Amino acid sequence: MKAILFAYHEIGYVCMKELLDAGIEIPFLITHEDDRNENIWFRTPKELAEKYKIPHYTPASLKEEKWIHLVRKENPDYIFSFYYRFIIPKSYLEIPKIAPLNLHGSLLPKYRGRQPANWVLINGEKETGVTLHIMEEKPDTGPIVAQKVVPIEFEDDIFTLYKKLIDASRILIREVMPDIKKGKINARPQIGPSSYFGGRKPEDGLILWENDAVSIYNLVRAVTHPYPGAFTFFEGKKLYVWKAYPEEKEHLSKPGTIVNLEPLQVATGRGLLRLERIQLEGEPEMDWKDFVHSYKPHGKVLGG
């Protein structure tokens, strides 16, 4: 079997490794250049390509005729997309002899679109997963080949959830590999309620203290390291909240008010948020005790 691979991220790395271990021929890899503004905490498929001496390319646009010609010339059985960040045009999807397949980081048809792992945490979901599906012109809508469910614990943050999704992706590809090598693709239509979510920007991490403590906690854990972080303002400076925990306690204080110093608790629209790891703009990340010792912020109000 021969496959052209479009891939990026740690999930792209582990899925590419499963293809190689199964003896799938990969004539070349199409991937991305690393973004210097992004925290590259993961391995990339490019590293595997270099190890296995597989040519790799980073086209700025797949609409250039030379790239579709390169793919068509290989006459592949499959096209695989593993966390590749660009939309693959319809002209490519018509090339493979068996199927174009994409791995999406949610249980489709829920959480179509960008950054589903962040969104499921923001929305307080109890489970998510990964879906291997046939690619169609409209992203994330094609028939489902296989899914793997991933439970979400209340203590999970974006990093621990990604580790679960990485493991689930590896296992899913390994489990479907016998059918893939036989060219046997059994797919079912996507049924049930669907949802779509767009990409997120760093400024979307602004904490709205009028929200309840659990909702703010969900935002904090969804955009903590390696993402840009949830933030508020303290005495005119950005204050990043890297780790926190909600406490359902009654209070009469204005949302955003620091009501206790031991532990460091902030009033929200409902309940308190206990701050554990924080960082003032331009300073190192610190434990809450260091913040309290340095700034003695009792009664101060966080926010815009």
Report on this structure.
28% of the residues lie in helices and 25% in strands. By secondary structure, the protein is an alpha/beta fold. The protein folds into 2 domains: 3-196, Rossmann fold (3-Layer(aba) Sandwich), CATH 3.40.50; 211-295, Methionyl-tRNA Fmet Formyltransferase, Chain A, domain 2 (Roll). Helix 1 runs parallel beside helix 2 and helix 5 (116-122) runs antiparallel to helix 7 (213-223). The longest helix has 25 residues, at 158-182. It is elongated, with a radius of gyration of 22 Å.
Short description:
The chain is an alpha/beta fold and 304 residues long.
Helix content: 25-40%
Instruction: Give the CATH H-level superfamily of the largest domain.
Output: Formyl transferase, N-terminal domain
What is the CA–CA distance across the termini?
A: 57 Å
Could you give the order of strands across the largest sheet?
Answer: 3-2-1-4-5-7-8
Strand tally, please?
15
> What integer value in Å does the Rg equal?
22 Å
Instruction: Give the total of domains.
Output: 2
Output the number of helix runs: 8
Shape: elongated
Structural class: alpha/beta
One letter per element, helices H and strands E, the order comes to EHEHEHEHEEHEEHEHEEEEEEH
Kindly report the CATH topology of the largest domain. Rossmann fold
Largest sheet: 7 strands, mixed
- CATH class of the largest domain, named Alpha Beta
At CATH's second level, what is the architecture of the largest domain? 3-Layer(aba) Sandwich
**What is the average per-residue confidence, as pLDDT, rounded to a whole number?**
96
β-sheet strand percentage: 15-25%
